[in-house]
Design a protein that fits this description.
The protein contains four helices and three strands; from the N terminus they run αβαββαα. By secondary structure, the chain is an alpha+beta fold. The protein has a three-stranded antiparallel β-sheet with strand order 1-3-2.
Amino acid sequence: MKKQAATLPTTVVDQIRLWEREGQRVQSSEGYLYDDFTTVDDFRLVRDYAARLDVVLWESEEARKCVVTGDGHLQIRQVTQLVWVVGQQEGPDTDCLVLSGCF
């Protein structure tokens, strides 16, 4: 007498196929999350600069969050530090020229 091969329920087989497809569809990559923006304008400034560098992996204007690639992180970090420094200074003697040179 032959032994019958055990079969899996259809729902289990379907779920395994879905997991396999999902694993093939999703790609992981290193990224850095920027999410401490006080205003939408600050968020847009950094997001638009990152977009010009083509380093944006994901962004949400409603949540004021942006994820950039590992390669673009250093440049974006320098810009965000510059924006913060310029925003903290008062008077005509600011670093606006340096800031505008970054863009």
